Amino acid sequence: MPHLLHLDSSIGPASGPGASRSREITATFAGAWREAGAQHTVHHRDLVAEPLPHLLDPALHWAPPLRPAGSSPDPAAEALQARLLEELLAADVLLVGCPLYNYSLPSTLKVWLDNVHVPGTTTAFPGHDTQPLAGRTAVVVTSRGGTYDPGTPTADWDHAVPPLRIVLGDALGMDVRVITTSATLSEEVEALAAGAERARAERAAAHEQAAALARELAGASL
Ligand SMILES: Cc1cc2nc3c(=O)[nH]c(=O)nc-3n(C[C@H](O)[C@H](O)[C@H](O)COP(=O)(O)O)c2cc1C
Asked: If I label 4, which of 26, 39, 91, 130 is the partner at 20 to 30 A Cα–Cα?
């Protein structure tokens, strides 16, 4: 059964005035995935409604055989990490809603990433030739209040997507696709209204891209 793991990390509402763009666009993707047929299942993990606790033991960064001698992680933290890994490993496609907060990814999403980047389990390590998610697709939907166009002074200031590309792509071996919507604040803040037309166009394009990619990936997962 083609299965989607859908993560959201925006602190904005899912709908109504001031709705989160990333939540709206991931919802479009998940809706198109479901419409592909009853066999296309979805597990939605809302990292804001149900925030994960920080990873507080460095031993949990490693697969059990690679942990430092004498380490004994908290069983509850270990069980939670095992559940998050199980959810990820069960997914044919991963969908991640990732707003830009203070030029970085939301801390709630970072905690999830800290739990699933585990050398020896999800990524290879000398003596542990494992990369179980290699070749699967991760779709990152990112939304940014400002603009970060090539050639502008802030071109390199968006540090939300790069760690996801490195961890999900380079380390876990997933095929990372990114859907971006920028200038979102210009639809809300009067002083930034000059960018509103661009924001609306990017938002509409992002919805279309999300629906088309969901249909493509749902078809490929059968
Ligand atoms: C805590 C916080 C920090 C933010 N920091 C940035 C930032 O560094 N750069 C930026 O362009 N927009 C920033 N924004 C604006 C958001 O990126 C923008 O509202 C975006 O649309 C949020 O995603 P969402 O629509 O999915 O909620 C910030 C918003 C919040 C709430």
From this structure: 130
